[in-house]
Design goal:
Length: about 230
């Protein structure tokens, strides 16, 4: 994975057909997705449950590009090795998920993955100021994590701008997660984000048997972000 700050669209399979993940991953990549975003939820850190490392390992062969695993679980550390073995390229943990985020980020890199840190809407940019040499990606949650299809929280755009300044020339991606669509993508792109996660705005209107709308949706978000 070489570093690249151009806009990348990362569809979240949280909005895919759960009975058909392999084919859905292949369809979104064929339709222009740059990364595949995989939302892991435990019903404890967030009020929803999705799936774990076995599902990630099962879908890995169906993804040619970057598998971006977003862990909304607590604790994180006991499961890092399993997600790395499942083939995650990026493993993102929440700064709010435990008392030792520094140790968690070390463990992610130690397991051979790129390390991401996610911030809930109420968590300030300054909370990771002393971790910047430990991370490859900062994920700004623009909804409260747990569900797809929620409304974008506009107050987070200023946080993106602050992070962009803090990061400077470092090779760190800024990822936006939640409520991204063609109306919100330009706001976060202008503030300095380069990885745009989108679930409902990518999958709406399409299916594995009719994937063309996925491509139209991805192109609309990318064009809006680049405008
Ligand atoms: C929310 C997840 C998101 C979510 C985004 O907890 O982390 O990745 O799927 O979905 P949309 O794009 O529908 O807001
Ligand atoms: Zn996510």
């Amino acid at each position: 994975m070489s570093f690249d700050r151009s806009i990348k669209i990362a569809p979240s399979i949280l909005s895919a057909d759960f009975a058909n993940f392999g084919a859905e991953c292949e369809a979104i990549e064929a339709q222009g997705a740059d990364w595949v975003h995989v939302d892991v939820m435990d019903g404890h850190f967030v009020p929803n449950i999705t799936f774990g490392p076995a599902t990630c390992a099962a879908i890995r062969p169906h993804i040619k590009g970057v598998m971006d695993v977003h862990l909304m679980i607590a604790p994180v550390d006991p499961y890092i090795e399993a997600f790395a073995k499942a083939g995650a390229d990026v493993i993102t943990a929440h700064v709010e998920a435990g008392p030792h985020i520094h140790r968690t980020l070390q463990a992610i890199r130690g397991a051979g993955a790129k390390a991401g840190v996610a911030l809930n809407p109420g968590t300030p940019a300054s909370s990771i100021e002393h971790l910047l040499d430990m991370v490859d990606l900062v994920c700004v949650m623009t909804v409260n994590p747990g569900f797809g299809g929620q409304k974008f929280i506009h107050s987070q755009v200023d946080k993106v701008r602050q992070l962009r300044t803090m990061i400077g020339d470092r090779a760190i991606h800024i990822e936006i997660d939640g409520g991204v669509d063609p109306t919100t993508a330009p706001l976060v792109a202008a503030a300095g984000a380069d990885v745009l996660v989108a679930g409902s705005a990518v999958f709406r209107g399409g299916s594995v048997s009719d994937p063309a709308p996925y491509g139209e949706n991805i192109r609309a978000i990318r064009a809006a972000a680049q405008a």
